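Let us begin with a simple case.
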Amino acid sequence: MARFWYDPDLSAGEPAGGRGVVTRALLAITRDVADDRALAAMICRACVDGLEVDGAALSLLTASVARHTLHATDATSELMEELQFTLNEGACIEAATTGVPVFVDDLAHDSHAARWPVFAAAVLEQTNVRAVFALPLRWGVTNLGVLDLYRRAPVGLGDEQRRDALAAADTAALMMLTLRTEPDHLTASGEMNGRVASWLEPVVASRAEVHQATGMVMAQLNLSAADALARIRAHAFVTQRLLIDAARDVVARHLDFTENTK
């Protein structure tokens, strides 16, 4: 089953406990963010500060073949994104295609040069980057985008940093989904039902149509409630719609997820 991160203790307001520095920083961001580019900038900055990397970029995938970078922390990160999308190879492309995180401690190593010959050569020639890490932003079975990180030194992420990076990528995926599919749930101050809204609130939808649609997808695909809701939310994201609109299509039987499994 596809991996997506969710901690019920956090959604209930419990302290972050063992969560890493970056994951805690992301969950501390209030939900009155102006747009997805502003949110991407906060996510990238938290990664640079918390993981001791030199740069970060966040790109999203949509229903079209095009990918677009929402934010890059510096000129090198921008160039790395452009090289990968232009050459159609590299850590980001692999993570986007496979949905599997990519950790490269030294891009100059022969194994990686053989893995992405054109990309590796271009990076080593045009930048001072040596280590690259690409983390897919996954929700359910859908890959929403990629969080790219780099270091100038040929040094990989430590075990604790790697765990934090993976959890942060899952958190970032949920934050992007929330911002794009449920913007009408918030007031301008970021409050929901008289209190500060958590980024984890959307995991438990309150609207009747969403509940009904979730039950229908559970029956269609034999999924748990959480996985069924994840499937609807991911569809809303990639088709650039609100969650409630996708749910209404499911209820009206205009959207049937079993068609995608045949």
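The second case is a distinct protein. As before, the sequence precedes its structure tokens.
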Amino acid sequence: MFKDAFASLPFRRDDELKILDVGCGLGFLSCTSAEFFTKAQITGIDTFEHDSLRGSSIEKARENARFLGLSDRIVFEKGDVFTYNPKKSFDIFVSNLVYHNFGRRRFGAYSRLASWARPGAYVVMGELFFSPKIDLIRLSKEFRILKEIKPQTGFEIYLLLVMSRKGSEKKLA
């Protein structure tokens, strides 16, 4: 699903992009991003301590990237959406199964993510939306929701969103 979402973005696969993976865990989405966007530089941030991913560590994320031959383009750092302060701008922000862990604090996390996204940046977010109407209203205050992708089978509350920072008007494929 993420590769389909990436293909809909107005970027070429060999563009030199900067991607931030928020809540990267073991680095699988960081690696998927690096495999799809062959010249992208990816930064993955995580606390590497959340109960939702037992055994997670920055070392394991680095090992996964190294195993796939992608460690030259992926950097992992300790950080979270509430405290991280990006030192550079990013073209794409990705996350999968992160924000539902924050309960009501997720709304502040959405705003924080939006503050990092300049016009022209895109967000690809896979999430369990237990209150989809409320979450989509909150997200639409910060972002233009361009595409909603639902899995063909499985979780009914999982949704993959492709969004742009308001002010970005590029059309998707």
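The chain is about 25% helix and 25% strand. The chain has a mean pLDDT of 91.
Keep these points in mind for the review questions at the end of the chapter.
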